[in-house]
Each structure stands twice: as C-alpha cells, then as structure tokens.
Amino acid sequence: MKLTLTIAALALSVTRAFAADYPDRSIFMVVPYAAGGPTDTIARLTADAMSKSLGQQIVVENAAGAGGTIGARRVADADPDGYTILVHHIGMAAAPALYRQLPYRPLEAFEPIGLVSDAPMTVIARSDFEPETFEDLLAFIRQKGASVSYAHAGIGAASHLCGTLFMSTIGAKMTTVPYKGNGPIMTDLIGKQVDMTCDQATNTVGPITQDQVKAYAITSEQRAKTLPDVRTTTEAGLSTFKLGVWHGVYAPRGTPKEIVEKLSSALQSAMEDATLKQRFAQIATIPATREQATPGALHTKLDSEIKRWDPIIKAAGEFAD
After folding, report:
1. How much is the pTM?
2. For 99-111, what is each residue's pLDDT tens digit?
C-alpha cells in the first residue's frame, strides 16, 4: 500500500514538474478544415494571440477531410502532453449523429479548453434570384421545392447543418448540391450557377457588401454591425431558425489538468487581445467571454449541442457513412 502511494505521489510530482515547464517548445494547433476558410482564419488569429501569453509559438496545421473528423481523430490519438491541440466548430457536435461509425466520442476523447467564438450564419443567394425578401424566399421554396438548388460544403460542414436546420424549420426540401469547400460555392453563387446557400458571416461579409450575392437574413439575435441592413431571422418572421457557428479548443484526453489550465488561461487572455477583437469584429465574429473560454463552459456547450443535433440529423436521414 505504501509503495503504491509512493509511486502515485512520484508520478504526480513528475507531472507537476512537467507542467511547470510547459510549454518549452512550439505547440501545434490542428484545424480539421482547409486553409483559407472561416475556421482556419479564426484558428490563426487565436493561435497568434495565445502565443503571446504562452511565450511559445502556436503553429497552425490543416488536416482537412471527412467533415473535420480526420483532424479531430489525429488530435484524439496524439500524446496528451499539451503540444497538439484542436480547434473545431459546431461540426464536433454533429459528428456523432452524422457518422454512425465515428472512431472517437467527442465528450470522452478530449479535454475541453474553452470556447473561442460564435458567428451567425447568413442566408444568401445568387444576385438575380427571384425572391426579394426573406418572406418571399420562404414562399418560393415551399412552392418550388426541389427546383431550388442549395449548395453546401459537404456533409457535416456548417453550410450543410444550416441547410438541414433551415429545411426542417420551414418544412420544405430543396435539391442539395455538395461542394468541396466554401470557396467553390461562392464562386458558383457569384457566377449564378447555383441558387442559394447558408454560410458563416465570417465568409460572406465581403460578397454581401459588394453586392455580389443577395442576402436575405442573418441567424443571430441582433443584426451584425458589419451587415446593418441584413435583417435577423426573427425580424423576418422565422424566430425558431437561429444558428451560430461556435468554435472551441480541445486537447487529447489525459492531458494534465495543470496544462489544460495554462492553455485555458492563455485562451482567456487571447479573447481580450485588441488585435483579435478588431479582426473578429471585421468578420462578424463574437469572441468568447472570459467565463466562456473555460473547460466547463465548452463541455456544457458541446453536450447540449450534441443533444440538439442528434434528432435533427436523424430525421433528415443524411449520414456521412
């Protein structure tokens, strides 16, 4: 018994000593989506701000594919030493329902570090799309149904989840057109090759303000300062259709508590960084509060969102495997 206690005490002492020196080299932040997209932008801004507090560079690595599950699994399988972390969005919560053979369980495979941001979605269409208002759009879709083409960036992408929720809410089906990313969608939307999509304001502020696409509504409680003329879905008469694309930071399960606390503290400081707040504002993204950038807040958010998306996805009958 004494030997067991001695070994346990020694292990705890070593862990604490390791954590006290952490970090002593660069940290890798895995983004499970392609470079240049909204999640990549948010991750790079967050990594730069967190690096200031930690005194070591956080290097962003893109590991795209399979709706974000490739990058997530890479981090789940990484050494729990605090040198490999993950930034993931709402797709982390949708994955358990979308992938019936998901190789990890989000609530069990990671140590939550904290929430990063929340960005509303925008319902947009090609500039010459017939409906003029959001109310007109709803009537048009309910009448035309499958003749309306809806583009999304693959099953599990934020645009796919938004479209699924939208169609479920209004009780109508459109013809979905999968793409390999938001970039090609925007190109075809501007080129009038597809009718509409629903994408993060992070990605659509530019095209909307330049009148390259038609904006119908934003899925937030309040209008975005960068899109003051775009009504909220509540203002437009569809108050039950609300969706924010939130991001969180995770470490592999088993990462020492002291390291998780250091990362969370750095994340909290990053959310108050002047440069980050300015850039987030420019892309209509709200940084997490100090209370939200904590392990407990992210765990609670992830748990509630998994429960929210499970029945919606199963009712839609669209799975990724």
Report:
1. 0.88
2. 989 999 999 999 9
